[in-house]
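Quick check before the chapter quiz. The format below is the same one you will see on the exam, so make sure you can read both the input and the output lines.
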Amino acid sequence: MYGFEVPRNHKQAMAIDRRNGNTKFADAENAEIVMIDEFSTFEDLGFGGNPGPDYKKIRVHMVYAVKHDGRHKARLVAGGHLTETPINSVYSSVVSLRGIRLLTFVAELNDLEVWATDIGNAFLESYAQEKVYIIAGPEFGDRQGHTLVIRKALYGPKSSGLRWHERLSEVLRDMGFIPSKAEHDIWMRDCGDHYEHIAVYVDDLLIVSKDPSSIIKTLSDEHKFKLNGTGAVSFHLGCDWFRDDDGNLCYAPHQCIEKVMDNYLRLFGKRPHNAHSPIVQGDHPELDASELLDDAGIQIYQSLIGSLQWAIQIGRFDIATAVMRLSRFCACPRQGHLDRVKHVIGYLSKFKHGVIRICTDKPDYSNIPKKEFDWFYTCYAGAREAIPEDCPTPRGNSVVATTYVDANLFHDMISGRSVTGILHLLNMTPVDWHSKLQTTMETATLAPSVWPLALPLSRSLICA
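Here is the expected output.
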């Protein structure tokens, strides 16, 4: 992870420390145990303690990670799979990446600051619902072998996520925030001429405000949350954030792409060859008849596709169609399909510095004629737009929404199905994208000389 070997258990962690001549994972374990004790997570019953027949014995283990800045982390996780499944739902939602993109656009549009922070040991802020206990292992030092009853919501149990979600929701409501009707994990507070927003992804918060430091102060001083990495957003949910020379806020998955390149080097022993486009013109992977990959090759293929899909989600929509068409073969890929994945990675390698710039300038559509439609003789005659009565009052500057739609007809040479690509923009900033093989084959009137050659693209523009 980010160039560091990550252990699977306590024994491996100690072995890695000895081999590296340091105590980074041991220090991470100690820091986690100290933090857990600060939250009074366990009730210590000593050696041979019996919490009673209502309690069930489970296991805990450390999960290790290395952050993008080289910090070594250890997280104590309980074996929630050993507990009974609750009757009630324990679903806990998170903000979408689309929501993050929308918020940062709104911030730039209205001259608001964007800060990020994460809440340390967030789940321990809430109480456990399950009645469970553990026998302490070597990670607990002098308490090894003690019976420890779990009182706080450790990571792992089935209801811990919901318990933390409920706890944070109470705090945000107390601060005057309400959940957005469009996305419940985006919280908003009316400030008269604008809204403040907080986007919640478990324990990672993205704050949009004229004075985000006041929100941070309330969370830390009044509600006693232990906040880490607080400040102007620079890295959030796997994406790098920065300002260009003109002062525009930009984001790009730079570290994600570097991780893909490092993984490629580890798998194939060399860097990918640079490519000028993610797709070779006239190529059809569905017609590939090369040798099927073995089990190890399938795992490599699926791993590379997964990493590319994540890069798309956090900004690199230029490879969306290329990855979509190759994702179809994850169950049974061929060598030719793997070569095409390498080609896409080669394209990312050449253009690894591509970014999305948040541009709030409005597009000029004055030269596009406005069409008037007569709906009187259709089923839509007399229809009116349904606007919710409890919509929030509009605040801030206005926005022009644009959607580009493109279709590659007869994309699949076997099924005849087409590919649709969609790009949504607010003013001149991309905020959402989509590329998908259509589920049905539609007929079209074409000259016989054109069929089955590569067909021209149809393009439409929708402005609101």
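If your answer matched, good. Residues 254-350 form one domain.
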